[in-house]
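Re-running the complex after MR caught last week's input typo. The corrected sequence lines follow. Everything else is unchanged.
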Amino acid sequence: MARFLFTLLPLIGHLNPALAVAATLLERGHQVAWAVHTAEIGASLPEGAHVYTLASGPAAPASPPVRGLRSVQLFFEDYAFPLAERALPDLVAAVQDFRPDVMAVDCQMVAGAIAARRLGVPWGSLACTSAAILKAAPPVHAWIAAQHEALQRRCLPLPAATAPWPDLSPHRVVVFSIDALVGRRHERFDAPFAFVGPMQAVGRRPVAFPWDWLRADAPTLLVTLGTVSRDLETRFFEVVLEALAGMPAVQAVMVAPQRLAAQAPPNVLVQSFVPQPELLARVDGVVCHAGHNTVCEALLRGLPLVVSPIRDDQPVIARQVVDAGAGLFLRHGKATPAAAREAIERVLGSTALREGARRLAQQLQAAPGRAGAADALAALVA
Amino acid sequence: MTDDDSTRNAILAQVVRQIRATIDEDWLWDLAIGPTTRFNDDLEIESIEFLTITEAVQAHYGARIDIVGWLSDKTLQELIHLNVGDLVDRVATTLARR
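Corrected-run output:
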């Protein structure tokens, strides 16, 4: 049996797929350890997990509420790269102590790739967002690549050992999406990809939800902006609330700050937390920020989406949904109640979008899933 | 008004026309678009939309506008703050070089 060390950014969206893969490896009798920022995500690790704590890095890139390209710059400049440099000594110590046969490294946990190469450990990349395997516009790419090279020059003993950005594993890159959804809009980097599809949730804590509130006979919508953006600003939520106030036949669950409940029309239930997988099994459409996990989980169930991307990789994922014929784009900071209403009506009413989403659902359900991801990592054991 | 100004105004009108054709959304109908309108912050432009707009401008004025070459010289900061006037300048200076 082999030893696997997982390392990733301390973000729930990066932890959840890794948990599913790790659980599969454990079921097969392998040993798993985690080198993570326990202050941020320790509470979400399984009980009894073998954990190495990394020195806390900068705070998660939640504020200030920036959008678009500027958020991409801040993600790397203020977050991913400083975090990598800070975490590297602890990560190297963890690898030396645990002596893994294979490291499973979040694509955006740059320190993981550096540690694996420095210590000569076989490693696989985990692409928690399919945007990580796609080429950005040349100026964006050049800027990130220069930062990455500077980091490696500081952290690797020999300049000859520097790798181009992104530092995708030359052995295996596990992508939690499918070829058909990633599409051909953006050129892909050259790497040995394994498209395994989204991971089904494992070990998530039960979340209470007033299921009686939902009527069986009404078209139902889930509105969510994910965990990072939920509390940053409420304009978008207010616009959607106004749109839904004019659509009494539709019922909606909105994942938003509880204070918005006061201005919600009777057909909207505002909840600050929801059991998302169970809710997705009950709804007919989703309005979201095009977070990678939410999009894949919704499409896995054949749900068409209104995608309203805010930051980071979300515009890329949103475009994938639209290109695949499974959703409509709504400009986040500019959406009006009229535009939101039109998009919601079309997403709930369009046969073409529903069929587009169902086509993807069939392919997502046929993807190798967590067993395939575990196979890909296990194949790297020397 | 100098010839230079009238050329610039014509180019600006052409760029604005392409923006409105590409982003046909209610919030933009009543919004004035000028040289200081920023693609990212003010229009929340999608990369694919920006491509559509610049390709249309290039198709109108000719390949020597070389939008791809122009953009590849930009830094990330310049790209983030790019405004309509920057695109108009690119077209105007290229045309003046004939």
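None of the earlier attempt is carried over here. Chain A has two domains: 3-197+367-378, 211-366. The CA atoms of residues 221 and 252 of chain A lie 5 Å apart.
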